[in-house]
Amino acid sequence: MTPLEPQAALRALPKAELHLHLEGTIEPATVVELAARHGVTLSEAETVERYRYADFRGFLDAFKWVTSFLREPADFALITRRMAEKLISQNVVYAEVFVAVGILLLRRQDVEANFRAIHDAGEEARKNGVRLRWVFDATRQFGPDAAMEVARWAARLKAYDVVAFGIGGDELSVPAKEFRAVYDYVAGQGLHRHIHAGEVGGPQSVRDAINFLEVERIGHGIGVMHDPSLIESLVSAQVPLEICPTSNLFTGALARQRNNPGAQLEDHPLRELYRRGLLITLASDDPAMFHTSLDAEYAAGLRLGLTLDEMVHIAAWGFVAAFLPSEEKTALLHAFHSQREALGL
Ligand SMILES: [Zn+2]
Known about the structure:
The structure is a single chain. This protein is of the alpha/beta class. It has one domain: Metal-dependent hydrolases (TIM Barrel). About 50% of the residues lie in helices and about 15% in strands. Strands 1-2-3-4-5-6-7-8 form an eight-stranded parallel beta sheet. The longest helix is centred in the first third of the chain and has 17 residues. The protein is globular and about 50 Å long. The structure holds zinc ion.
């Protein structure tokens, strides 16, 4: 058997995706469809135009705009089904997906009815080969009271595969320590603790998240590249970072971290962070909004100079870093390694 090209080999491996926003998976054609359901006429070209940003705030505005067309359970069911199809087509067998519950609450939408539609669509997807679990995401700039409300919903709906609570949004808006009571509550409810940190913020933002909130996994975390001692402590504590290279490029996070407005993908610290021993998983973040996919992120890893063996290692870490009980993790890893051997990797 001729060995597969590295990119094809990575595509053929079963993978986990641990940093994916449901609302960021809505392709322009689906935005048009959703808008039409609610009496708004949009063209695909207009949507594509909205999916271009000058900076991080511009991206957050676009995110808010696209979620304005999510109004009832059928809308959420549709986008969940489409997301699942895309994941299955890339051999993603397990995903932990953020739901922007902070935004649902801001719009005074029915969290339970909409989330039940998401969950039911997820159950359908399970039959087709992808297991979906959910992370309820609060929006940082809405502050600690709004975040607590999201945390309460996560606890209330825990039986529907909600595994964690997290915070996304504008990292620079409210200091981590103000969310301490929220994360204490979350831990008391038996949920995992997640945060977006070190995306546009520096190492202190990641330190604060670890020290004050005891988060178990960091979304992005590329800001740690400026602080070797923080890297060492993350390595010894085995706190995984979910790295999303294309997202960092499109939001301007990479330009900011590199202090270079012209930063390109080649300037991404993925290889450096991996080789310093950090537990890295690769993810696509908001794939439709960043014109990417998990496959494309794996291809980017190769382009950034990681070897095929290193990329296979990173793929396995997607399961290692999952918020799963150890027996489920072991089963997924076992299937992963069988397929890896079958592919001669
Ligand atoms: Zn994210």
